[in-house]
Amino acid sequence: MIEKLSNKDIRTLKYGAIGAALILVFVFGSAGHERWTKAKANGAVLRTKLDAINVDKAKQAGLMSIVPVFEMPQVEEEQKFLFRDKLSEQLKRAGIRNKPLQVQAGRKSPQSGYKLLLVKCNATCKFVQVLDFLARLNENPYLVGIEEIKIKCDPKKQGEVTLDLTVSTFAE
Amino acid sequence: MVWQSVVAIVNDDNEFKGVELRKQDGSFEILWTRSSEDVDTGWREFAAECGLSVEPAALEDADSDRMVVAGFNTEGTIFHRTTVPAVGDKEIESIIELQAETRLPLPPEQIELAWRADQLPDGQMGVTIAVARKEQLQKFVGKVRCFEPAKILLNCEGIVKIWEVLFSGNKENALVLSAGAHNTHVCLVEEGRLSNAVVLDIGVDDFSMTSTEGQTETTERFAQDMRSVLDLFGCPDQEGLPVFVLSDGSATYVSIVSSLRLAGLNARVASPGTNRLMAKSELSDEDIYQYRTPIGLALLALEAGSDELNIFENLYNPAQKVVKKHWLYSSTVTIAIASIMLVLLVIVSYAVDITGPNSIEKRLEASVSDVDMNLLVKRQQLIKTVARERPDLLDLFKVVNESGERGITLTSFYFKKGQPVSITGQASSNDQLSRYEKNLQNTKGIEKVNYTANTNAKSKKITFTMTFHYKNFSRKTTRTKS
Questions:
Q1: Distance, in angstroms, between A121 CA and closest chain B CA?
Q2: Residue B201 phi/psi, 5° resolution?
Q3: Do A66 and B387 touch (CB under 8 A)?
Q4: Interface test with A, best of B314, B353, B363 (most A CBs within 10 A)
């Protein structure tokens, strides 16, 4: 039967076959391409998440030295209580007799999206006690950082200092 | 591709003839000649005798540097010469198809035609058309397909070629006669190429009759036939047109020429000249004459870019003999491998991208829930934020302490995010204070160190206030990457 076909017929059949193949490729290809694009986007999101969790050991060790313990922020009232309680305990442990801690509502942190609570502490104590307190301050799991610290020597009493400290914590 | 040699086989005058011709440095060498008059011999048997592969399986392994051509006897083929205006090939083709239908009263599907156009001095196109019955050509193809010739050429084209090369045919327009035992090919040459041909059923044997009556009758018939042929060819100047009778040098051809001269034609004998043949060919004039048609076809096949009339174009398409090359050098294989690799790459990329996230998600689901996963990410990001918010005050105290010499006493220290760190104290001398400033300035993480100093007139002690920037904590807004 093919022998009866002219060159023109064969050429037409070839173009037809190529066209049909292109239609199939387009139909299945576009669906596949869409699926592929979605899968790639999902993959990228997953990889970003994994990268965020899977920090290399040296970096993780560095982070752990600065933030050895950490608790996720709670609602403001609860966080305020927990932070103040832990801070008082740490001050007490360092032997610092402080005036009552004052809690101030701070601004919302643009980086974390949490509210920043400030806790002010005033005390008169020995400088070594301050050092001891600061050395253990990172063990407070609710602490974000030291916002302000003022240490002033009392010229009359050798080794005694007045301490004005403001520390912060995140709250939801 | 460049062929080293050509094997040409013809069935001329009921006799199979074969030659192998090689071209070297502008000369031709006939490597061998073979003929067979055996009535039982067919194309297949003779091709085998000539050392050609006739088994289908062996064809692919056949020598690739040797071209094989078969000659088609032009009996039953009608030639026609016409002129057309200088138009494109498509227009010429349609004109020719119409002319062919008038020349051969058969439906178009039963005929095959080939044409060749050449430019005439008057600006028109001269077209030589060859028309034959398809059935006849198909039968011939069936006979020669067994040894798969690279080309099937017309015998009369071979005759014109050998006249031109070995019989000193130097005329642009001429009539060439090639007389066989029982027939004579009459070929009209115009502009150096075959333009028309017929086969007359008078041969050398008819001229070699012993009786005088018989000879006279043959001579008259031959002269009459030649007049008819010239009329058919449409030659205006029949007496002036040179007629070449190919000859092996024997007396018979002289008598043919004489008969033509008597008829008023400008006839002459054309004898073979061996100057274009290499000496080692060792062929006599008789041999060259006997094998004139296959030698002519071989010469035609060896000629690069020869525009022969291929009447078998639609009926015979020989399998190309592929020069054996390592498969690695084959562009087809390379393209195929590259295509497969490309497809594999797309498939693998697709599979990895589709299954990768799914498998990661499955493994994560097995170990942690989606909520836990988000919490982990959030926690990790928060820890990083907190780490950036925590100044190492103990380290700063150490630096401030170690940078000062004995004699410097610090009285206060003040740090607030977004402001320079401020320290106050007493120093013994300005030099000491200056060195203290330099030491702090050289410390990593501390910059922009400034101080103001006042000297106490009584104690001669210097009271100073020094400020400096500590890492990124002293900048107005602490920008951190989330």
A1: 14
A2: -90, 35
A3: yes
A4: B353
User: How many beta-carbon contacts under 8 Å exist across A and B?
Assistant: 105
Residues in A touching B392 (Cβ below 8 Å) = 66
Per-residue pLDDT tens over the stretch B346-362: 888 888 877 777 777 77
Residues of chain B positioned with their CB less than 8 A from the CB of A146: 390-391, 393, 415
Helices (H), B3-123: 43-49, 56-59, 89-103
Share above pLDDT 90 across residues of chain B, in percent, rounded to a whole number: 12
CATH 3.40.50.970 for domain B170-271, yes or no, is no
pLDDT top residue among A12 and B329: A12
| Amino acid letter, B312 | F
B202-251 pLDDT, tens digit each:
888 887 766 677 677 888 888 888 888 888 888 777 778 889 998 888 88
> Which positions in chain B have a beta carbon within 8 angstroms of at least one beta carbon in chain A?
350, 353-354, 356-357, 360-361, 373-387, 389-394, 397, 410-417, 480, 482
Chain segment B301-321, per-residue pLDDT in tens: 888 777 788 888 888 877 655
- Residue B400 near residue B440 (C-beta atoms within 8 A): yes
> A138 contacts in B (CB within 8 Å)?
390
CB atoms B413 and A149 under 8 Å: yes
Please state the domain extents for chain B.
1-78+130-167+273-324, 170-271, 331-388, 393-470
Q: What fold is seen in the domain B1-78+130-167+273-324?
A: Nucleotidyltransferase; domain 5 (3.30.420)
A139 Cα to chain B: minimum distance (Å):
12
**CA-closest candidate to residue B200, choices B158, B258, B238, B245:** B245
Distance between CA atoms of B451 and B471, rounded to whole angstroms? Answer: 18
Q: What pLDDT digit, counting tens, does each position of B145-178 carry?
A: 888 888 899 999 889 888 888 887 777 788 899 8
Phi/psi at A139 (5° precision) = -80, -5
- Note whether B170-271 and B393-470 share their fold: no
B482/A112 Cβ within 8 A: yes
Structure tokens at B95: 């004109």
Cα distance between residue B44 and residue B32, in whole Å: 19
Among B116-130, B430-444, B450-464, the minimum mean pLDDT is found in B116-130
Find the mean pLDDT for residues B125-150: 87
Going by C-alpha positions, the residue among B218, B226, B224, B223 that lies closest to residue B175 is B226
Q: What number is the average pLDDT over the span B441-455?
A: 91
Class of domain B393-470 (CATH, top level): alpha beta
Q: B68 to chain A, minimum CA–CA distance in Å? A: 26
Domain A71-171: give its CATH architecture: 2-Layer Sandwich (3.30)
Taking alpha carbons only, the member of A114, B248, A1, B358 closest to residue B256 is: B248
**Rounded mean pLDDT for each run of 10 residues along chain A, 172 residues in total:** 76 92 89 85 81 78 87 90 92 90 81 87 92 92 93 85 93 88
Give yes or no for a contact between B389 and A169, defined as CB atoms under 8 angstroms apart: no
